[in-house]
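Run log // design_07
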């Protein structure tokens, strides 16, 4: 589930500005070499995952199909990630699945409470769930507003400043994290820490 999609904006010598999603979903994690090594994926698993990822159905919503901005709509991304996650679990064995979920919790931190499954695991109250929904709605609205502004200017390279767009995205994500961080109780925070399992050092990528 990744309704939290990063933006990288780049200008080319000829043509419009394009928006490229940074995939930090569960499926996106499985693309990472460091995660594949931690999970000890076999050569067969890597091959099957690569074959699946090349299928048009796997990439739908993550490539420029018609409207390139469609990929950035949070609800579209969320629906895509639900389907891709089912495929991820089908590729992994029991032990790998347990470790993969631990890595996901580590990667998402408090954002894990956006997931209905973890709202159950963490025993979020109705009031807490409602607060999560409101925070998510505000986040999605802000993302769509950003998309609209960039979409209106994307045909004119000089009007789109990549750094400003990235900074705007970071600000939206930081505001969501600030809201979500106020929701869990201390006991729930402790459980999130337990769900992380053995600490893993992700090799950060530079874009």
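design_07 sequence
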């Amino acid at each position: 589930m990744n309704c939290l999609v990063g933006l990288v904006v780049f200008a080319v010598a000829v043509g419009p500005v394009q928006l490229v999603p940074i995939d930090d979903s569960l499926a996106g994690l499985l693309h990472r070499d460091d995660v594949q090594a931690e999970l000890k994926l076999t050569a067969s698993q890597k091959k099957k995952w690569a074959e699946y990822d090349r299928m048009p159905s796997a990439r739908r919503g993550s490539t420029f199909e018609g409207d390139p901005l469609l990929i950035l709509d949070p609800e579209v991304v969320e629906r895509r990630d639900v389907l891709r996650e089912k495929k991820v679990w089908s590729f992994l064995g029991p032990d790998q699945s347990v470790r993969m979920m631990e890595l996901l919790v580590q990667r998402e931190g408090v954002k894990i409470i956006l997931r209905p499954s973890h709202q159950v695991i963490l025993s979020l109250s109705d009031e807490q769930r409602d607060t999560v929904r409101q925070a998510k709605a505000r986040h999605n609205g802000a993302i769509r507003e950003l998309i609209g502004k960039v979409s209106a200017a994307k045909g004119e390279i000089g009007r789109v400043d990549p750094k400003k767009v990235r900074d705007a995205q970071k600000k939206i994500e930081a505001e969501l994290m600030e809201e979500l961080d106020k929701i869990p109780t201390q006991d729930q925070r402790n459980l999130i820490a337990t769900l992380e399992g053995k600490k893993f050092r992700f090799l950060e990528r530079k874009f």
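The longest strand covers residues 6-10.
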